[in-house]
Amino acid sequence: MTSRTTQLLAGLSALALIATGCGRGDSGGGGGGGEGAVKTDVGVTAEPCKDTPNLTKGCIFLGTISDLTSGPFKALAVPITEAQKKFWERVNKAGGIDGYGVDVTTYVRDNKYNPETHNQVYQEIKSKVLGLAQTLGSPTTAAIIGDLGDNNIVSVPASWTSAWAFEDVILESGTNYCLESMNAIDYAVEQFKPKSVMAVHYPGDYGEDAAAGAKVAAEKNGLTFEAVETASGQDNQAGAINAVNSKKPDLVILTTGPTDAAVIVGQTAARGFTGKYIGTSPTWNPGLLKSPAGPAFKALYLQSGPWETFTADTPGHKNMRDTLGTGVTGNDGYTAGWVWSYPLQAALKKAVANKDLSREGLLKAVKQLDKVDYEGMLPASAGNFTGDANAGVVRETMIAKPDDASPTGVSTVKPFFVGPTAKDYKFDKPCFQS
């Protein structure tokens, strides 16, 4: 079905509901017309969400599209999705969004980290949800970004490409791969003074964004630079392995999935490579320490990231751990899913305060957010969606090292910092387009 057909059917359905006096927002302070009415359209029902008996104003449905079964980021995506479920359960128990419940479980779909599949399942749910609580992946989300914009569907990305800072419908959190890689190289220059850098990366926005940032930082620091693209899949890493072992760079910025990272780090080390790796955020999974490549990671690897790990001492981290419960093993997929949910919560609250919980109203609320309370999980300046990208982008990142004693397999060695390259960088377009 085309988007135009979908919009036409949605419009006819809305007219029919209005004619019978039972429009979607006709609940509590809903969109039925009174002075205190809240305007609603798609994805908000008059009936409360199931399992939220104390919330009577209606139900806000949010979709989730993630890598849940067979893609390279399953080990991260499953805890991301679980953490978001728990985040919104906590919101509902605390009174919801001014009495509205939030449902993030009814419309959960698996993208298998495939752009075509991502678009297919998105089309299945888009007429039923107000927005997306999660759209995992840079290339996968790129497959639907035009339609998201055309339909004012505010969405939370489970990715950090720098392109999201230039999309009004995207509610990103933390720094992007580009600035993260700049900080990683500046940190390396400070700590062990490399002379050569290689970016080993997946194709598409994810890998190319990190490689672009690495190139900027390498050039600024007077280092030689080379980029090596590698496809997803354990059997596809021979080229990357040969490039690392033949060129012997002092530093490799690695931007892959965890399984492919294990192949690359493990096999290059087995063939004598002694340089350093710094992996961008989604490259790591605590299971890597228990893999055959575990000793190589301990010897050669550092992990960069947009926020502190699962065990960090902030109010937000504590609330996350308390809500997830003691049975949860540390995984920074949980941390990411939790952090990503804060700006959408803030935008929904703002939309209800504006009396407009329609898609257009939610997008308007996003553009009015000049800060978001991340409960200490991000810097106080994070969450400014009102100005230009250069002013609003978060530039701070952290560095961690493998650590058997940590539930997430890593512990912080350098808390939030901004290196000189990221500090001075003029962020006026997606890095991979520069």
- Give the amount of beta strand, in percent: 15-25%
How many separate structural domains?
2
**Major sheet size, sense and barrel closure:** 7 strands, mixed
- What is the spatial order of strands in the main beta sheet? 9-8-10-11-12-14-15
Which of globular, elongated, flat, extended, rod-shaped describes the shape? globular
How many extended strands? 15
Oligomer: single chain
Family: Belongs to the leucine-binding protein family.
Keywords: Signal
Protein name: ABC-type branched-chain amino acid transport system, substrate-binding protein
InterPro entries: Leu-bd, Peripla_BP_I
Give the helices and strands, then pairings:
Elements (H helix, E strand, L loop, with lengths): L2 H17 L19 E2 L3 E2 L12 E9 L7 H20 L6 E4 L4 E3 L4 H11 L5 E6 L1 H5 L2 H6 L4 E4 L18 H16 L3 E6 L2 H17 L3 E6 L8 H10 L3 E5 L2 H13 L5 E4 L14 H7 E5 L9 H10 L7 H22 L2 E2 L1 H9 L21 H4 L4 E6 L7 E8 L2 H5 L10
Parallel strand pairs: 1-13, 3-4, 3-5, 3-6, 6-7, 8-9, 8-10, 10-11, 11-12
Antiparallel strand pairs: 2-3, 12-14, 14-15
Compact summary:
It comes from Actinokineospora alba. By secondary structure, the protein is an alpha/beta fold. The protein has helices at residues 3-19, 74-93, 115-125, 138-142, 145-150, 177-192, 204-220, 238-247, 258-270, 294-300, 315-324, 332-353, 359-367, 389-392, 420-424, and strands spanning 39-40, 44-45, 58-66, 100-103, 108-110, 131-136, 155-158, 196-201, 224-229, 251-255, 276-279, 301-305, 356-357, 397-402, 410-417.
